[in-house]
Each structure stands twice: as C-alpha cells, then as structure tokens.
Amino acid sequence: MFARVTICFTLFCTLTVPRLLKADVRLPKLFTDHAILQRDQELTVWGWANPGENVTVTLGGAKSQTSADGAGRWAVKLAPQPVSLAALTMIVEGNNRIEVRDILLGDVWLCSGQSNMEFPLGACDASEDIQAASLPLIRQFGVELNFAQTPQTDVRGQWTTCSPQTAAGFTAVGFYFARRVHAETGVPIGLLRSSVGGTNIECWMSQDTLLNTPELEPYAKIMRESLADYQKELASTLPEIEAWTSASRAALQSGNSIPLPPTWPEFPFGERRFRPRCVTLHNGMIAPLVPTSLKGVLWYQGENNAGGPFECEQYIAKKRAMISDWRNWFNNPDLPFYFVQLASWQQPHDRAGDADGWAFFRDAQRRCLDISGTGMAVATDVGDAVDIHPKNKLDVGERLARWALNQNYGVAMEVSGPLFRKLTIEGSVASISFNHTGRGLMAAEKSGRLAVEETPGSKLQRFAIAGSDRQWHWAEATIDGDTVKCTHPAVKSPVAVRYALSMNPAGANLYNRDGLPASPFRTDDW
C-alpha cells in the first residue's frame, strides 16, 4: 500500500505541479548547520545554481570562486585548514546568499554496513552513557534509506549534535568509537551513518565494480541474468501501466479518485536471484556523499554474506573490490577501513573443531586484514547467544578506536588481540605463533562490559588439533612465551589447529595482556 500511495503522489505532482524555474544557489544536505567537515585536507564544496551563475564560498580562512556549468552544477576546493573547535560559518554567495552556521573542522568517519552498525545507542541498555553524553564536539549525520537506480547527487538527512537528548539516536558503535577518539585527541568527530539492516556487501559497491570485477564474475553473471529476466517481466507489464496512466489522467481531470496502480513484478530473491535494489544502495547512500573528504571508514557487516567455504572466499574478493571501489570514489587510495568481526550468536556446541555457521566467515574476515589500510575488532567475546544484535557496543566501538588512535592519530597502544601468524610442527606438538601479542599472552575472561580479567591457572579452551585423518580433538593448549603449544594423546603427528572456530565459541579465553581477545582462526583449508 505504501508503494501505491507513493506512486499516486508522484503522478499527482507530475500532472498538477507546473515546472519550477531553476533555483538560485543551493547546497547538498551535508552542508547544513552543525556540520563537522574534514580538517587538514583539501575540502570540496559543491552544489547547484543557475547555469553560468558565479558562486563564491568562504569558510574560516579559505575562500574560492567558480561558476555553475551548463547543467547548473558547481564545485570549489577550499585549502586545507586545521582543527577548529570554535564554530565557523560557511558563506555561499551567488544570486542569493546562504549561511551555514556552527560548522566545526575535525575528522569525519563514514559508518556503514548493516543492522549492527545501524543499531542505536538507545537500544543498548546504556542510560548512564546517554545521560552523560553532553558531547557537542561529536555529531552525526544520519543518511536516510534510499534505493536508487542511478547514482544520486544528494541524500536525505541532517546533522545532530550529541547531547543527552539526542545520543539515543546515534549509531552505538560510532558513538563509542567517537567518544574514545575524542577523549584521547580532543578532535571533533563527525559520524556519517549510512547503513541498512539485512544488506549484503554487494549492495554497497558501485554496479560497475560489481559487474566488471573479474574475481566477482560468478556473481556478476547471475546478476546480469537476473536483471535481464526482470527487464523482460517489466516490459510485459507496460500495456497495463500505460492503461493505468491514461485512466489516472482522466480521473484527475474529472475530479475522481486515481485508481490503484497495477502490481509491479517482484524481483526473485533466493540463492541465485537478487532484487534490483540490492545493487542500488551505493547509488542512493554512498555516491551522493562524494566528493566529501573523510578521515576513514567504520564497517560492521557480514551476517547476510556468511555461508560455506566458497561464499567466504568470495567475500574476501568482494570486500577487496568494495574497499578499492570506495577509495576510488572518495579519491583516497589510502582511506583507512576498520571493520568488526562477527560477534558470537546462537547456542554453543562442544564438538571439537566442528566449524558451523559463521565459523569460516570469521576466518575469512581475519584474512581480509591482508588488504592494506584495514583493521579488525574481534567481537566473539561480546556476543549474545539469543540476539543477533548484541547490546555491548562499547567494547566494539573502543576496539575500533584503538586502530584509529594508533594508525591515524599516533597514539602508542596495541590495536588487536593475538592474530594467527604461523604453525610449526615438532613431533607431536603443534606450536602457534601470533602477531599482536602485546604485553604477552594470557588466559582471561570477559563478563559483559566489565574489563577483561586474567584467570591464572585456567586452561586455554577451544583449541582443536587434527592429524592427517582430519579427525579433530580438543587440544591440551598451553602458553609458552608468545606461542601456544597444542597436543593430544590421539594425535601423534598433528597437521592442523583450529581456534574458536564455531558459531558461538563460548569459553574461548586466549587474550593478550592489553585485554584484547584472540581472533578465531584455522591453519587448514579443509
């Protein structure tokens, strides 16, 4: 019914509203009161005006002039400026004058992905954090949902200053990230929240990249075939649509009600078919943000792409393609991209080495760290067995913040828990070496939002070991310096080790002494 009302309203406007005269100078929604714009980078400001209209833009100590092209588009580049905690006013002058007030210069982070990035602070049982959220130097621009067939030039949304009255609507992951980074640096943080629940990674890259990246050809072939089939179905409905249009015009002229529109063909959705809108979120919610300047990207997505080993391998290729795509669109080949590994979910099992659900997918996410300029926040210890949307976003946001603080702000700190580096076999002993051991390895536990606590004397859990027969056994795993040694009486000649490789690896307890959990991993390719 909503779709039909929208169609009717659109038709009504088309039929009854006279063509508007071209407007004076105007700006996209990103340039509105309370915005945070990127410091220390050349800043592009763009908009629309009458063709040929002269436009001058002033912000702080930067000023630039241009004229609108034949299509009425214009853009200027302002020289880089340092952090500004004091509110600035952007003045845009053409035939008219626009003043955009209360602008800060800080760092802008694009927060994207699916529902766990969209998940608001108000749903996190975080009343104390909300009450204490008088943080005027943290602001969010919430991009509204928009599926589009072609790249759009503007978005719907507005800038909101963080306060106890507004914080509940902020992306929870982004809020905790911004709070930590701002507390450590004093820099204003702007969050561009552009996320939609239940979406595949394919939705977020440009259609050109999706359909023309060689590594994605299997998916692209399915997509092209599905789109072609859908076009045929649409064409078959044209006579009915034309008849409805004619009847609607006649009804308007006679003062009668517009008849309900025909039923549009539903695009098949399943293992091998995809709705057209699945390739249009980039058009509606990413492309219109270009060419804004960014500090980096925060990404929490994957639940919709998690599948078997083949899908996981494909995800690595898709993520590599999407990151490259965004770096091209935002004209920054080194754009930082920090993502969240999927949290634990559903009831745990006690079958040694038996990978289920998201197990292979988390390992694929770990392997995405081979992409330059990326970082990963492990979240297996802050999940929820009964809720795919765990409410502890504090640790997630702060773990992402560690990557940014160290890599982009020069703060000395460990960024990650132990990450698998190498397997060494010596007789019946399988030794695992790690990167990011920090101040040393330890067995520890995490309870809710409380700090990680070492558990001296406890055994390491969730390490599984196998020989050439590929039969997994729970290993006797012990810390030896910066390595973990694994054995089992039934495995005389081990060939592989797995750690925390299950949908919900409850009890996995390897951490570094910086309080960060080890990522799940596998050394095999079975």
Structure in words:
The protein contains 11 helices and 24 strands. Helix content is 25%, strand content 25%. It is globular. The protein is α+β, with helices and mostly antiparallel strands and 526 residues long. The protein has helices spanning 2-16, 115-118, 127-131, 172-185, 207-212, 217-236, 238-254, 281-286, 309-329, 359-367, 394-408, and strands at residues 36-38, 43-48, 54-59, 62-67, 73-78, 84-93, 97-113, 135-142, 159-162, 189-195, 296-300, 337-340, 374-377, 419-426, 429-435, 441-445, 453-454, 463-466, 472-474, 476-480, 483-487, 496-499, 510-512, 521-522. A hairpin with a 2-residue loop joins β20 and β21. The protein has a domain at 419-522.
Structural key phrases:
about 525 residues; alpha+beta; 4-stranded antiparallel beta sheet; 11 helices; 24 strands; disordered N terminus
